[in-house]
Amino acid sequence: MRTLVIDVGTSGLRAAIVHDDASVTDLHYEEFAPDSPFAGLVEFDATAMYAAVHRVASRALESGPVTALGITTQRASTIMWRASTGAPIGPSLGWQDLRTVGECMAARAEHGFTFAPNQTATKAVWMLTHYITDVAERSSDDLRIGTVESWIVYNLTQGAHHVTDHTNAAVTGLTIPDGTSWNSAMLKTLGIAEHQLPRIVDSMGFVGNATDLVGAPPILAIAGDQQASLVGQGCIVPGMAKITFGTGGMLDMFVGDNPPHSAQRNSGGTFPIVAFSRGGKISYGTEAIMLSAGTNIEWLRDDMGLIADAAESHTLASSVPTTDGVAYIPALLGLGTPFWDYGARGALFGITRGTTRAHIVRAVLEGVAHRGADLVESAEADSGLTIGEIRIDGGMSRNQTFVQALADATGRPVRVSPVSEATTLGAGFMAGTESGQWHNLGSAAEALSGAPVTSPLGAPGISRQQWSQAVSRARSWIPELSSLDF
């Protein structure tokens, strides 16, 4: 059996075929980076996005028919369109867009709602306010508001289905705490008509046929990218966790069936999430966030000129046994979990006359690894569960010096996903399980057992205590930003 997966990320999108042995073939990719017309603004053309999705999916299907279609996408990016035309109303807002920081602060002060600017809630309000000038029209039955997966499904089914799933709905900021339904009282206060939002469905289950594709394959799974990666790395038992090291870093831990009491940030700096849902049963997780991971490698390459390409970061860092006491804090965009200090900034400590570029490059890799350890400790503290092994994917997972540094900083074995983008595997596992390609998610994940494991060798270059001291010195560098709390 064969499953088609559509995987829409922040900077590019792909389609591929997932086979019974969890191999991935017929992968077709297109870059699709958002626009940033001004600092803090992140927009994209939703029509162009779907056209690219259709192209890569059609190319993947040239190899033959499939029995299922799974969809995984970036989360919380917001699109508004008219049902009568199927066309977006104005530019769509990416999850990184910060234009609604003021609205987030106002919502807390006026209504007691805690929103982050990377959630859908204030983006939807902003779009209604700025794109629909007629106040009476803002509740029109013709308007549709959704996130990326909603838009993709709507177009694939030629307007027949306006849906989202629990994993995506729960990170919009607009649901009740357990993510099962929209928060009607909140929507009324914000001025969002509930009938404009997508219907919330299970992550795994028949949604409709993708009639805009050859063969009209059944859509059998929808999931947010981080949740798809969680499933794609086989983390479906309480206490299992993965970290995706892309531009930023996201740790997601599978918690189980007990719903959270609140959708707000936990005391340790993590957020409750829906891991996936099937047959009306919801499984939950917790999520920790690193604001910059691979961005630090790009900084070394593009801005500092210390390496020619990302691969050289491993070669150069491995040429020295330690950082020789140098510590790097990867806070180019502030610090996420557990600190949530937007005014923290990147810093190098311990530089001497003998410090070389190799020491600095190694310190950058070890700094990202220590941030990974921060995420692990926070997830354990908030969940009460112990993470025995860390599973990782993303571009940095291919850097063995970094992988060893992560194992040493956390004191845990690190298992690297056999597929760099585990999101594709996860969406394939979910849809394939529904179609009968696998008996259950567990049997699908068994194909990952051969993934390489790196064991900790001992203490990292700098101790966790030294790391904490260095972080404290990098925090609150811009006090006015450090005072922001979402």
From TrEMBL:
Residues 242-431 form the Carbohydrate kinase FGGY C-terminal domain. GO terms for biological process: glycerol catabolic process. One of its GO terms (cellular component) is cytosol. This is ATP:glycerol 3-phosphotransferase. Signal peptide: none annotated. PROSITE patterns: FGGY_KINASES_2. Keywords: ATP-binding, Kinase, Nucleotide-binding, Transferase. The keyword rRNA processing does not apply. It comes from freshwater metagenome. Belongs to the FGGY kinase family. GO terms for molecular function: ATP binding; glycerol kinase activity. Residues 4-232 form the Carbohydrate kinase FGGY N-terminal domain. InterPro entries: ATPase_NBD, Carb_kinase_FGGY, Carb_kinase_FGGY_CS, FGGY_C, FGGY_N. It holds the Pfam family FGGY_N.
